[in-house]
Design goal:
mainly alpha; Serine Threonine Protein Phosphatase 5, Tetratricopeptide repeat; Glutaredoxin; 6-stranded mixed beta sheet; two-stranded antiparallel sheet; 8 strands; globular; disordered N terminus
Length: 721
């Protein structure tokens, strides 16, 4: 399920004024053209660094090797801009990169060379996402004091396209200056496409096609995909079938070159995908796997193909079908592990299947976890939140297996999250709600209850109480005020329930039955009104009720009292937030070529789903969007439509046909980005006068429940008009 994660990052102790003072009048070291693209020698050397990605090496070892190659290049070409930039990229790669050290080193280089535009640019570059305002100030000043250095313009064009700093005019202006200084550049085509300016996209197509048709450089093949994407965005939707035929001609010519390289095959794969030709796409993928069977590319293709051919069961599917899926997953992961013994995703998939499969063997889970831990230590590429150690700890607790190992598993998971937070943190480029918790806080809420229970069950009551005290302190900080949002109230209720269940489980283990019953009842009472009570909580509470002499009649009375009262009645619309914001004007085209504006929504309650073909949770939610549309299609007062945010818009129509969806699809990537949309799936419920009254983010795998809640909110909004 997609959820918006955020995590707090410690601010760097750098004074903004000092950073600005570090940019005196700069002297020009090179002409603009010399910065636009690397020399043939440097380009060839950097290609060798990229080729390491195709070697059968653990992720961490691969990064280390590439860093050493780049360090060698720096010793030979210490002043080459492209080598310096690529080395900085290598130090930023990976989830556990030491960004603080990189910032400090970049600042030190700037202090040594205050007149060097490259040093200023590289320092500003590592501040983006951390102290972006400071990066903007440095880059803007650099454009004035070193006008021959072009990269600061591209940097600013990118920054001004992020939600928190979005300024379309400035982004376009800097993008135009970058292109003017580097007319043969390749780096801006993705950004030109995202900005969505038709004149700029047209000019990009006019530059790119002749460039690609005359190029003999294998690396230029990748830009065909950019060209086709730009063409799809420029051509009216009714002309897309004709465009697919034109792309087919391009693909035919490219295939006739018989280059048999990775770049060639990936370009053909992209072309077939843009055409909607599944057979051709699979041919190219199969050739990529055959060419380098141990590569990450091969693993991704094989695993993605399996996901596509064996989709995850729907929430309403019978349990027998779900169990059959997990059994098949175990067989598949056995094959993957034999083929790629150090692949984290293969081991992780196996752990998920064992956790969900009834009757799975404890020893199989232990072996799977040991395999994953070994792979994770050498790769460090696959990360989940919370870490898989938490899932394994929960499995051990549920099975009463290796209880003594649970605390170490939990502590390992928490240490990993702390390390991730230190190296990552909250980006200041994106909008995040005040109620969105950090990855570490989310992991703590999942892990602490398991840790407290494990300590209690291994007869360490003092340690169990220490954990409960930590949970109580964290819960106190979450307590919402009187004017708190529904989201904050829901969050507090959720975490309060977790806390009281943990208190109850510890008391239950310690045979303090009355304390346990009271804590269980409190957990049931603090939930958001209307939210279901988990079966385990209900069963444990009822068990203690009866053990202490309670009757069925008394139990029914207790449940009736719970249903009639709730501390958080105003937050009863679970997973939906009140917005009450005006939906901006738009002019978008759907897949039938029809133009849509805000006026088309007026007078109706509009339910708008935001999605993309590449979004897994979206793909799980869309069948229910279709059902909702079928359910409401005859209503004159309600409109169900969707907003697609794919960059490669040519993929959308084949996806719709393949899945037999009939809901309206507006192509609106640029519009969504302008609204600061940073996570999907997302749903807006819009009033008859064009206000977004409610917003729901994420899909919780309860399709029928999702439909019921969506219908309720639509009626609620309709009733307010």
């Amino acid at each position: 399920m997609t959820r918006e994660f955020s995590c707090r990052r410690k601010a760097l102790s750098l004074l903004p004024s000092l950073c600005l003072l570090l940019v005196p009048t700069l002297t020009r070291a090179q002409a603009a053209a010399e910065y636009c693209e690397p020399t043939p020698v440097i380009k060839a050397e950097l290609k060798k660094v990229s080729d390491v990605n195709d070697e059968s090496l653990p992720y961490a070892a691969r990064l280390d090797r590439q860093k050493k190659m780049l360090q060698d290049l720096l010793s030979r070409y210490p002043n080459d801009f492209f080598v310096q930039r690529r080395y900085q990229d290598s130090r930023r790669a990976g989830f556990f990169a030491d960004i603080d050290a990189l910032v400090a080193d970049s600042r030190a280089q700037l202090e040594k060379k205050p007149n060097d535009p490259v040093a200023v640019y590289l320092y500003a570059r590592v501040l983006v996402g951390r102290q972006t305002k400071e990066a903007i100030a440095l880059a803007e000043k650099l454009t004035q004091q070193s006008p021959e250095f072009p990269w600061s313009h591209l940097q600013l064009a990118e920054i001004y396209n992020y939600p928190n700093f979005r300024d379309v005019t400035k982004s376009k202006d800097h993008l135009k200056q970058w292109i003017a200084k580097c007319p043969n550049e390749r780096a801006s085509f993705n950004l030109v496409s995202r900005v969505g300016d038709k004149d700029m996209m047209t000019a990009a197509v006019q530059r790119l096609r002749p460039m690609l048709e005359s190029s003999t450089d294998n690396q230029d093949l990748y830009y065909w995909d950019n060209l086709w994407t730009l063409q799809f965005k420029l051509r009216p939707v009714p002309e897309h079938p004709q465009l697919r035929q034109e792309i087919a001609e391009d693909v035919k010519k490219i295939r006739a070159r018989n280059l048999n390289t990775k770049e060639w095959l990936q370009t053909l794969e992209a072309g077939y995908r843009q055409m909607g030709d599944k057979a051709g796409e699979h041919w190219a993928e199969d050739e990529l796997v055959r060419r380098a069977p141990q590569s990450d590319t091969a693993k991704f293709i094989v695993q993605s193909r399996d996901d596509e051919e064996h989709p995850f069961p729907k929430p309403e599917d019978p349990e027998a079908k779900k169990q059959a899926y997990y059994r098949a997953r175990l067989e598949t992961t056995s094959q993957w592990i034999t083929r790629w013994p150090d692949d984290e995703r293969s081991w992780a998939s196996r752990i998920y299947a064992l956790q969900a499969l009834n009757g799975s063997k404890n020893e199989d889970m232990e072996a799977a976890y040991n395999g994953y831990a070994k792979a994770h230590a050498s790769q460090g590429f696959y990360l989940s939140t919370p870490p898989l150690d938490v899932m394994v700890a929960r499995f051990y607790l549920q099975r009463g297996f290796h209880l003594e190992k649970v605390p170490a598993l939990i502590q390992k998971a928490l240490a990993e999250m702390e390390r991730r937070e230190k190296s990552g943190g909250v980006s200041d480029l994106f909008k995040r709600g005040e109620d969105v918790e950090s990855n570490l806080a989310y992991t703590q809420s999942e892990a602490w209850p398991l840790l407290a229970e494990a300590y209690a069950r291994t007869r360490q009551p003092a340690k169990a109480n220490e954990v409960l005290a930590e949970m109580a302190a964290a819960l106190k900080k979450r307590e919402p005020g009187e004017d708190a949002s529904d989201a904050k109230k829901r969050s507090y209720a959720y975490h309060a329930g977790i806390y009281w269940v943990a208190v109850a489980k510890v008391a239950d283990v310690e045979k303090r039955k009355l304390d346990a019953l009271t804590a269980y009842q409190t957990a049931m009472a603090v939930r958001v009104k209307g939210s279901p009570i988990p079966d385990e909580l209900n069963n444990d509470t009822q068990r203690l009720w009866k053990e202490l002499g309670g009757t069925d009649q008394g139990w029914r009375a207790f449940q009736a009292r719970l249903d009639s009262k709730s501390k958080f009645e105003s937050a009863e619309v679970a997973t939906w937030d009140t917005k009450n914001t005006v939906l901006p004007e738009f002019d978008l085209t759907d897949l039938d070529g029809r133009k849509w504006t805000l006026a088309d929504l007026k007078g109706k309650v509009a339910f708008i789903n935001l999605w993309a073909t590449w979004c897994g949770p979206c793909r799980m939610e869309l069948p229910y969007v279709q059902k909702l549309r079928e359910q409401l299609k005859d209503r004159k007062d309600v409109l169900v439509l969707t907003l697609n945010i794919d960059e490669q818009v040519g993929k959308v129509e084949p996806f719709m046909k393949e899945n037999k969806y009939s809901f309206p699809v507006l192509l609106g990537q640029a519009f969504a980005e302008a609204q600061g949309v940073s996570a999907i799936p997302r749903n807006w419920v819009v009033t008859v006068d064009g206000k977004v009254m409610f917003e729901g983010v994420g899909f919780d795998n309860d399709g029928e429940g999702w439909m019921k809640k969506a219908a309720e909110i639509i009626e609620k909004v309709k009733g307010t008009n």
